[in-house]
Known about the structure:
By secondary structure, the chain is an alpha+beta fold. The protein contains 25 helices and 23 strands. The protein has four domains: about 160 residues, 3-Layer(aba) Sandwich (Glutaredoxin); about 325 residues, Alpha/alpha barrel (Glycosyltransferase); about 70 residues, no CATH class; about 60 residues, no CATH class.
Amino acid sequence: MANRLINEYSPYLQQHAQNPVDWYPWGEEAFQKAQKENKPIFLSIGYSSCHWCHVMERESFEDEATAEILNRHFVSIKVDREERPDIDKHFQEVYQLMNGRPGGWPTSIFLSQDLKPFYSATYIPDEPRYGMMSFSSLLEVIADKYQSEKKLLIEKADEILGFINSRKEKIQATRLDESIIIRFIDQAKQLFDHKDGGFNKAPKFPQTSLLKLLLDLHRITGDKEALQMATHSLNSMAKGGLRDLVDGGFCRYSTDDQWLVPHFEKMTYDNALLSELYLKAYHTTGEDFYKIVAFETLDFMLEKMSEDALFYSASDADTEGEEGKYFVYSFEKALRSFAKAGIPDKAHPALAKALHITREGNFEGKNIIRVDDPAYIDIPYYDEAIAALRKRREEKHLYPFIDKKVLVSWNAMMIKSLFQAGRLEARYLESAKQSLDALLASMYIHSQLFHSTLIGKEPRIHAFLEDYAYLADALIEAYRSTLDETYLISATKLANNAIERYYNNGQWKFSRGEFETRADIYDSSYPSAMAVMLNVLHSLSSLVDIVYKKFVFKTLELHSYDLMRQPISSPLMSATVVRYLKDDIIVKATEEKLVQNSARVDDIAYPFTYFKNDTNDGFMICNSSSCFGHEKEFDAVLKYLNQR
């Protein structure tokens, strides 16, 4: 029998609608039940493509005995973190305060009937292990303590909430200067993995904004090691594993140092940001390999992850209850696929070796396809082998579950990347315009921006700062690509709304309303919404009105101490600082060198380039991350500035 999640839009909540647990969505019905029955609340936060969320569901939420304990002693609430990032953000902060370390998913929070958190965990096993008691035993202990020691639990919860609610920003302003460039590069060098690329040890995430800034700083400083760190990381990530060589697209992160074994979920934001990053690497180095990876990633998203010009949020790590089953191959079946494709038998041993296919396997007895040098593949029958392996997937396995939820911020990231690719191939420009029009039509209704929905459904959840920031950023990118001023007007309107809703004297909120949460300067799974918004405002200060720059300065000033001390933790904010600091130099160069040539100042920015625009009599200046294909002109301006 279905529980109350059956009527929810979220595919993640729908996944739990048939659990024996009497799940409630977040809302008054659940809160009132807890009050009326004097029961604590068990809050479980996750998302549809989360591997450990599935594990906990199979072990505990589908178990009748565990469900009976939950139903008897608790009111159970399920939240999709992608649908409600405000709830997730609040309780991630609660978790970190309680445990002294960052959390993860699934997030398991126990609350009083008054919504006061008194215990928090992430994944909880069904049997005692990892130094933890079993989930069912924990439920029994908490249920007993809630009845016998409720007052003490509430006191502890009040301490946590008091700390969150009373905490003020510690302001230690310091001078922002160009030493941030050297400091950022030096910190990157200290953390860099010289063997496998990337930063720190496993689990390894792509850290796109860090790599992107390294490419930019290489251009401005000539630091060859900054370039080498970026390109070595990009090459290593593309070998296979994190990057799916068979279907295309990137997985979320690697569980090992070599980028070989991912959790196999594919997120829209990763693929959007990585395609943008590989395009930047192509324009920085001139190596076609990076363009090929970017186009392959965009094609994967357009083919597998879109509908009606909008993009789904994610595909799953698990297939048929098994992690990675869709993605991996046994030695025998891989070679059988080669034979069926007509690849000569004598070529099979060398082909298997080149693709890292062995009898022992490189992942739980099976094989993840991988190559040693993705930039220069010289493997006989490689294309035929990849096609054969792709065909085997399609014929023998179910495709991983796709969360068809549409998120404004993630769609906007994809659209921005498509516009950038559209400067190289017109087909991507058409896709970008179609997707942007579809997103605005479905999610920006009567001047009200929403956060998420399903295709064809009326959106319910209002937008957060990240939606305003990323959509405005995509609109400015659309303007740069088309010079259609309606895009610029919409970007300005969104930025004004964001300032009104979320800005206060240099501080930004991520959400307001039920949960008022602060915006972070740090890049997490994807770049800081605050940093994206500052870059939007910086662009608007050149394109529309210089007044927008005061919001940029005030915010950077407020966070200057943290940014100058450890810029590596906030790559996009650090890039914003560099962009801001370079303004005066660029303005002077514009006045002296370009305005005299009837220049049109499209976006005085850093890093920058200028070029002759076919649709405009004069020159444009714009952010080099969006003016792809004009790197020689960038270097000409840079040389001119260095000679001054």
